[in-house]
Amino acid sequence: MEPVNFLFVKIFARTKYFSFVFWIFNIFFLLCNRVYEGYSFYMIGQRWAYLDNFRGTFRWHICFNFVVLRMISFGYDYHWAHRDSHFDHKKHIQRCDICKSGKTCYQSLQERGVQNDKFSFMTYLSYLVYAPLYLAGPIVSFNAFASQLDVPQNNLSARDIAWYGLRWVFSLLLMELMTHLFYYNAFAISGMWKELHPMDVFIIGYGVLIFMWLKFFLIWRYFRFWSLICGIEVPENMPRCINNCYNLETFWKNWHASYNKWLVRYLYIPLGGTRRKLLNVWVVFTFVAIWHDLEWKLLSWAWLTCLFFIPEMILKSAVNAFQVESTHGEFVVRELSAVAGAITITCLMVANLVGFVIGPSGISWLISQFLNREGLPVLAGMLLTFYVGTKLMFHIHDAKQSSS
């Protein structure tokens, strides 16, 4: 598929309908890989069927999801480089603190484009199978990757990289401690949470989120550490702790951050960006669900997230309007934001429980558990706790702003 994609890009990149056909081409293969579970030898012929008994435990079609993202990145970067060959990207890049210091940030590497000879098949193949990022990312754009082949990253010194690896070891020890002392994930997988009190369900739901955050934190930082040793800087996934996110937009920018950058660059902005935000989030999150796997519970998770996004967007617009008109705007905005933060954290817990634990069939059970005599006080206490936690996040943000 990789050589076919390369030829497709080279032939059709300068045509008017490239984007439409290119997306269909890649999504088609993405779905085929999942439907046929990586394909079987018996599809070639019956005499080859015996080889299916030796497929092993490594499911290449799962990791191939990341390869599809890299193929799309290569195609679009090549398409934009030739469509906008007269366009000087450097004039449109806002210089950040990193760039002002004489170093080059990731955003600059991604946006300024590369020389035409970098779009060769060997560079393309190296990008697709780059070992440190092949299994799980973080996701790096083709422009950023190709730019660092001749000039390795200079933002982090050897000492910085060593300290980064040591912090990863400390995080691994924390994970070991958590899995030995707290059994959130075991309760969720076994289904025993259905027999528990609503307060216990709330604690398990929140614990599962913390477990998932730390698990992916370890995976992504390990591979980023490996990539940094090789001289390729990639975006940091999980740059902010999950307990320091109080709205959906901040959460998604700081969860799978490199994937968020990819989605914004190659899907959200081409669809119209903020001009069609209410419509675009449905397309983006549906793609995210399909990209992860073909399961109804993931589609339920994606569409629930979109539903939760809509009131947040409306509330932000209303708050901004109220802030302009009211003399007490700052106080009211912070209070409304804290209430919205409490609701958002609760919605995130529900969406992730539905998407990764209980499935869409468990929504009615979850609602019935929290909207009865025992569950309502727990729900009220949960919202109050998250309200206080959100106010604490505001103070942390203010302290950082005043110190910088």
Automatic annotation (TrEMBL):
It is found in: Membrane. The keyword Signal does not apply. Its main location: membrane. The chain crosses the membrane at residues 17-36, 57-76, 127-149, 161-183, 203-223, 277-292, 298-315, 336-358, 378-396. It is a multi-pass membrane protein. It comes from the Eukaryota. Keywords: Membrane, Transmembrane, Transmembrane helix. One of its GO terms (cellular component) is membrane. InterPro entries: MB_O-acyltransferase, MBOAT_fam. GO terms for biological process: triglyceride biosynthetic process. PANTHER family: ACYLTRANSFERASE, PROTEIN-CYSTEINE N-PALMITOYLTRANSFERASE RASP. This is Membrane-bound O-acyltransferase C24H6.01c.
